[in-house]
Amino acid sequence: MFKGVGRTEKRKFGETGLKTSILGFGGFHLIEIPYRDVEYLLNTYLDKGGNYIETAASYGGGESELKIGRAVSGRRQEFILASKTGERKKSGFTASLDRSLKNLNTDHLDLVLMHGVGSMEELEAILGPDGAMEGFAEAKKAGKVDFVGISMHGAPYVLIEALHRYPFDAVMSTINYYDRFNFPDIEGTLLPLAMAKGSAVILMKPIADGLLWRSAPDAFRYAFSQPVSVVVAGINTTEMLKMDLEFAENYEPMTDGEKDELYKNSIELGNYVCRQCNECRICSERIDIPGIFRLEGLFDRQMANGTVTDPAEYALRERLRFWFGNRQLAADNYAQLDVKADKCTKCGACIEKCPYRIDIVRKLEMADYKLAGKKIF
Question: Which DSSP letter does residue 131 get?
Fold first, then answer.
């Protein structure tokens, strides 16, 4: 019934000496299903060659860790085990790690991730005096954990700064063909920096929190084609596991030409999401059109487009658009622009230049409505 998780060789996990299967098993969605299903899914994943299981202390208040510990702790030597902590100070980190080890029924983690570090203040706390990194150093010395990483959702500016300031063994980031255009610095800056620093890259959200469900084969192929160590997917059904395993088994790298076709024809990107091609940089009013659309991507991932064609699709986008919590940051950056979208004269010259058939004039109005906090669109 099931195929394996791809080629017999594993990908290098940064400079740690570890090697990972290209498909990793994410633990968040294990809180949604009963233990008997968790046991079957995790053991089947391991049976088929998967070797990276990741969870977090906060998932279900520890439920995900407890289920993983009960289901596969007897096979501990067969896989890389990672968990995350939201604690920023030394004492909190130590307590969180000890709780995770107990929940997971193990004496050590291969990797602990500083979870969802979304601000420079949090990074300062982690790296500073009595910070979580001091707790990690002690835990590593005690043999409780081998390696440390850091994760962030959405815009990667904290991760970029973190890699400049500390030799993290791994970095975890949102990477998919939809959010590539909302957070272009992930692929443009973060990935090359991680490679230069020797840090493993853990790819999360290959189907953009579920938005790309209709295009899962393309989404996973795109994800596997990135210069990353492992693609972590949340799995909570037998059908999903079977499908993801087959994607990994049948994976062939996506060419640049195929990526361009995907960007052009993706149903999710459609004729609304800006692809950042810069062809529209001709505005006589000096409006930075791609820059404003990058801020819209930061604001709500360009998910609200003023059109409702399917109620379920609309509901999904409404649920996901503010997932990363960057609204205020985007609005603050927009407020600092000398020339905003409301300076558009509606001449339409930019529309003629767009190879993706985007109604740029209308989209500028939508972006201004969002970013300037206007009451009516």
Answer: B
Same structural domain, 362 and 244: no
Query: What residue numbers bound the domain in which 190 lies?
Result: 11-261
Q: What is the pLDDT of residue 195?
A: 97
Q: Do 61 and 147 fall into the same domain?
A: yes
DSSP-derived secondary structure for 7-25: -SS-EE-TTSS-EE-SEEE
Nearest to 84 by CA among 56, 63, 107: 56
Tokens of 86: 């939201």
Rounded CA-CA distance 170/159 in Å is 10
- The pTM of this model reads 0.96
Reference 275, options 287, 257, 258, 293; nearest CA is 293
Say which DSSP state 148 is in: E
Domains in the chain, number: 2
Please provide the distance, in angstroms rounded to a whole number, between the alpha carbons at the two ends of the chain: 51
Residue 275 lies in a domain: no
3-class secondary structure, 81: strand
Of the chain, the percentage scoring pLDDT greater than 90 comes to 97
List the one residue out of 263, 177, 269, 257 whose CA is nearest residue 220: 177
Helices (H), 89-190: 90-103, 120-127, 132-141, 157-165, 185
Predicted confidence band of residue 377 (pLDDT cuts 50, 70, 90):
confident
| CATH classification of the domain holding 144 | 3.20.20.100
Strand partners, 81: 53
Domain boundary among 261, 276, 304: 261
DSSP calls for 296-364: HHHHHTT---S--S-HHHHHHHHHHTTTT--HHHHHHHHHT-SS-GGG-----HHHHH-TT---HHHHH
